[in-house]
């Protein structure tokens, strides 16, 4: 198919309860970005970075309880939105 995976520089895109099933939530990389039609050097210039609680906690485990919730995680989703940045080449039109 010619698909190439874009690397998520932070290493996570979602959190889950973890094996202990306590108030600590563990990062995971579930949401992947794939592109087609780029040369290998061009794909290296495409960046994927998660936002919200993934970025806020730098893809490290965090604690969230009903009393002290991590709002984005508790009220929105365990997945984080991922932004994909395509760097412009010098010869791209404005």
Apparent shape = elongated
Report strand order across the widest sheet: 2-3-6
Q: What structural class should be given to the helix and strand makeup?
A: alpha+beta
Overall pLDDT: 89
Poorly predicted regions are none
Sheet of most strands? 3 strands, antiparallel
Strand content: 25-35%
Number of helices: 3
Number of domains: 1
Rg (CA only): 16 Å
Determine the fraction of residues in helical runs and give it as a percent range: 10-25%
The CA-CA distance between the termini, in Å, is 30 Å
Order of helices and strands: EEEEHEHEHE
Please tag this protein with its features:
two-stranded antiparallel ribbon, 7 strands, Endo/exonu/phosph_ase_sf, alpha+beta, 94 residues
Report on the architecture of this protein.
The chain is an alpha+beta fold. Helix content is 16%, strand content 30%. Strands 2-3-6 form a 3-stranded antiparallel beta sheet, with no helix packed on it. It has a two-stranded antiparallel sheet with strand order 1-4. A hairpin with a 7-residue loop joins strand 2 and strand 3. The two termini are 30 Å apart.
Detail the topology: elements first, then pairings:
Layout: E1 3-6, E2 14-16, E3 24-28, E4 33-36, H1 40-43, E5 46-50, H2 52-56, E6 62-63, H3 71-76, E7 82-86
Antiparallel strand pairs: 1-4, 2-3, 3-6, 5-7
